[in-house]
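Entry 14: structure prediction run for Acetyl-coenzyme A synthetase. Input pasted below.
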Amino acid sequence: MSAIESVLQEKRVFPPQAKASAGAAISGMEAYKALVAEAESDYEGFWARIAREMLSWHKPFSKVLDESKAPFYTWFEDGELNASYNCLDRHVEAGRGNDNAIIFEADDGTVTNVTYQDLLDRVSRLANALKKRGVKKGDRVVIYLPMSVEGVVAMQACVRIGATHSVVFGGFSSKSLNERLVDVGAVALITADEQMRGGKALPLKSIADDALAAGGCEKVKDVIVYQRTGGKVAWTEGRDLWLHEIVENESNQCEPEWVSAEHPLFILYTSGSTGKPKGVQHSTAGTLLWAAQTMKWTFDMKPGDIFWCTADIGWITGHSYIAYGPLAIGATQVVFEGVPTFPHAGRFWEMIDRHKVTIFYTAPTAIRSLIKASEADAKVHPKSFDLSTLRILGTVGEPINPEAWMWYHENVGRGQCPIVDTWWQTETGGHMITPLPGATPLVPGSCTLPLPGIMAAVVDETGQDVPNGQGGILVVKRPWPSMLRNVWGDPKRYQTSYFPEELGGKLYLAGDGAVRDKETGYFTIMGRIDDVLNVSGHRLGTMEIESALVSNPMVAEAAVVGRPDDTTGEAVVAFVVLKRARPEGDEAKQIATELRNWVGKEIGPIAKPKDIRFGENLPKTRSGKIMRRLLRSLAKGEEITQDVSTLENPAILDQLGEAR
Ligand code: WTA
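Run finished. Output tokens:
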């Protein structure tokens, strides 16, 4: 039975426990329905109300939603604010400067506390230093940093002066970094000498040097380097600057730059089904609003809570639920530099115990790998730690299979913590479909119901609603404040990717398949319907990996598909035709390793194919089209039941089917 089938047959229901509902921001289904009704009866009024409640405006907005240039929507456009002011100053002004903003735990276990006042000082200093270097409102700054307080400081410092940041995950290659620097038109790059992961120092600055040397990014005038390890780095005089040196003599006062609600807060690159990664452009007010509001609704965050989101700031989850959401509501959060398996696979549970975490948010892949580890070694099992402070658990990034859900519920949540399975995307800015911890009866594997104000639906290929119980395409019917505003530099792509004509041009196309339960209307996500893979919760375009493979001089042709994987959700399988004869045995193994490393260098280690198979050709129709459905079956090791009569070269199936 596939994971989706098992979710659809799932009969277990976990109603909210009384203690989860008591005092919750949304305390039951009645309260949820009232908010849904409010949004339905007065859509703009609903959003205006929460935008006034959640955010501090320098200049109040008078207009809410402008649809005149649809699908290029604007929200609260004539309002002015600053995201950093909302995340820092307003808490300090309210007398909470001594509250902990961040409990940082380094890879080696060293813990540092950073108060709101400290954070504001550090952000202001760096903001002043950036200004001194000529970085100004509207400029783009690329951030290529490890998980660190400095990462959050860098993001906040950019938005404080109205610069738009674009964070690139520290696991991306120099080529990926170069492409992003060029596409976004960066004027500065903030990086580190090295990063520490699992006891090992890994290079960052040298990768950044390669990225800059690759050309096209001559606009980058300053490279600011955070000294993390003190490891040796090459230095370009006149360009490279140590972070600690440039902030040393800066004032800790920096007046925030007030920007329009629509001013781009950040651009974050993500994979699509075609072409290069897209620069997803987010607005200041809308994205900040929803990050803050969902902290309250989805996580029921209250004073005294200790929040921990294990994502990296290089992904959207680390933007909305580390750099912005928790700070916007004045929360205390744990930020972790390391990996879940170092020095042992009980690190997460040990840290929850040590920091008395109350709300824990992680990815299904992490859970699945820790299940395996704790089955092998009782010492790293969650039951070996005191997790009694936990009250809410969350997951994000990929579907969670019911077995992993149950394990998380029983072993980490002690059967007492609601699990919020949050469905959302880089493009949506914040949670879209998710249970509410004090209200929603939970069904393992289902993300349940849309948040109030989010008009999610399942439609067919023509944009018509499909009845519950029938699978279809997941869409959002009305614009919402935290939605992406554009694809950076490519409005046409924004329009065709997200508001396709086939669906009428008005529905937001998420790119996922979904089905709603016949009785409850609960949503279950069935995975991507485009050529995007989800490996360990990371989005990868099959075309990107194919292009990387084909750029290797040995490769004539390549096709990449996904295959279900017990730990990573999906795994990358590549079918490759070499320019030389099809390799076999040891030679095949050796070339496969070479190609895997090649992809690692071209894109980043996360994109390395798990399985590479060589053929003399690829299965093609007589018109030359690669039959991907067949490749997917071959990747899974399924018997071929599809009609292969249009196949030009049926013998190829035997070659490619043989798993290596
Ligand atoms: C998938 C991550 C099932 C989905 C926040 C989506 C999920 C893509 C879930 C976005 C979930 C995310 N259940 N699938 N709870 N959350 N996805 O942009 O395919 O990195 O389209 O954003 O992850 O990935 P992205």
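Notes: The two ends are 24 Å apart (CA to CA). Will compare against the previous run tomorrow.
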